[in-house]
């Protein structure tokens, strides 16, 4: 291989390593952001006393939905609408600034528990 070809191969390898490193850094940063959102959602769940009806394990009771299995908690839009607008015995939390601002984190927390629940 010519000298020019070797230099080109080294440049390509270096660029590949940089791109891979940037990708991995982005993935790690995304995972940290997800963990932060989940932790914030768990804090909100506890602070707003969601466990009063849905339980500390999110499994609900005879009168209140199981957040781990309800199809409505699997869909972000449906989850947000029910939490913010209320439905049936579920009160509206739209006027609760902490909940309305933290709905993404609350959904992240419920989704993480849902994903980890035994099938």
Task: Note the topology.
Blueprint: H1 3-47, H2 51-54, H3 71-74, H4 76-85, H5 97-101, H6 103-116
Architecture overview:
- The chain is mainly alpha-helical.
- The protein has a single domain, classed as Cytochrome Bc1 Complex, Chain D, domain 2.
- Helix content is 69%, strand content 0%.
- The protein has six helices and no strands.
- It has helices at 3-47, 51-54, 71-74, 76-85, 97-101, 103-116.
- Helix 1 packs across helix 6 (103-116).
- The longest helix is centred in the first third of the chain and has 45 residues, at 3-47.
- The radius of gyration is 22 Å and the shape is elongated.
- It starts with a helix and ends with a helix.
- The model is unreliable at 24-30 (pLDDT under 50).
- Keywords: Electron transport, Heme, Iron, Metal-binding, Signal, Transport.
- Pfam families: Cytochrome_CBB3.
- Residues 1-33 form the signal peptide.
- This is Cytochrome C555.
- InterPro entries: Cyt_c-like_dom, Cyt_c-like_dom_sf, Cytochrome_c550/c551-like.
In short:
By secondary structure, the chain is mostly helical.
Strand content: under 5%
Please name the fourth-level CATH homologous superfamily.
Answer: Cytochrome c-like domain
How would the global form be characterised?
elongated
CATH architecture: Orthogonal Bundle
Given the structure, what is the number of helices? 6
Distance between the termini: 56 Å
Cα gyration radius (Å)? 22 Å
- Proportion of residues in helical segments: 55-70%
Tell me the series of helices and strands, N- to C-terminal.
HHHHHH
Within the CATH hierarchy, at the fold level, what is the topology? Cytochrome Bc1 Complex, Chain D, domain 2
Q: Specify the structural class.
A: mainly alpha
Count of individual beta strands: 0
Biggest sheet features: none
Unreliable spans: 24-30
Residue-averaged pLDDT, rounded? Answer: 82
Give the C-level CATH assignment: Mainly Alpha
Count of spatially separate domains? 1
């Amino acid at each position: 291989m010519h000298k020019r070809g070797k230099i080109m191969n080294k440049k390509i390898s270096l660029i590949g390593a940089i791109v891979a490193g940037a990708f991995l850094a982005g993935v790690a940063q995304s995972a940290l952001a997800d963990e932060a959102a989940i932790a914030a959602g768990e804090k909100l769940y506890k602070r707003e006393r969601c466990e009063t009806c849905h339980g500390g394990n999110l499994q609900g009771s005879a009168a209140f939905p199981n957040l781990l299995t309800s199809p409505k908690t699997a869909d972000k839009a449906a989850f947000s609408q029910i939490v913010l607008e209320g439905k049936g015995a579920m009160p509206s939390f739209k006027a609760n600034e902490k909940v309305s601002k933290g709905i993404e984190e609350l959904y992240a927390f419920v989704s993480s528990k849902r994903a980890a629940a035994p099938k």
